[in-house]
């Protein structure tokens, strides 16, 4: 199992947000700060223990560069990154 880092896409395994795609927007020791741009905004991310998340994939390059470069993203950027990942998974399942 791969350890999630800033700008990776994860899924919380327990709690209210379990099963939803989230973007790692920060790290605090053994905690990850998660946002999805809708229920969990970038300004108030969810603090979740690493062991309570499942790594899925890195986000797209543009989002990664912007987050690591400036340390900020708009909520729209977070939603776009998660939508791109979901679209990729959808196309793989259909065999495109």
Could you tell me the number of beta strands? 5
Query: How can the largest sheet be summarized?
Result: 5 strands, antiparallel
Distance between the ends: 27 Å
Count up the helices.
Answer: 2
- The CATH architecture would be Roll
> Which structural category do the helix and sheet elements fall into?
alpha+beta
Mean pLDDT: 93
Q: How large is the radius of gyration?
A: 13 Å
* Number of separate domains: 1
Low-confidence runs (pLDDT<50, min 5 residues)?
Answer: none
CATH topology-level fold name: SH3 type barrels
Task: Name the helicity range.
Answer: 25-40%
Question: How large is the share of residues in beta strands?
Answer: 25-35%
Question: How would you write the strand order of the largest sheet?
Answer: 4-3-2-1-5
Using the coordinates above, name the CATH class.
Mainly Beta
Give an overview in words:
The chain has about 100 residues and is α+β, with helices and mostly antiparallel strands. It is about 30% helix and about 30% strand. It is built from two helices and five strands. The protein has a five-stranded antiparallel beta sheet with strand order 4-3-2-1-5. Strand 2 (about 20-30) and strand 3 (about 30-35) form a beta hairpin. The longest helix has 20 residues, at about 75-95. It is globular, with a radius of gyration of 13 Å.
Q: Can you describe this structure in just a few lines?
A:
The chain is built from 2 helices and 5 strands. It has 96 residues and is an alpha+beta fold.
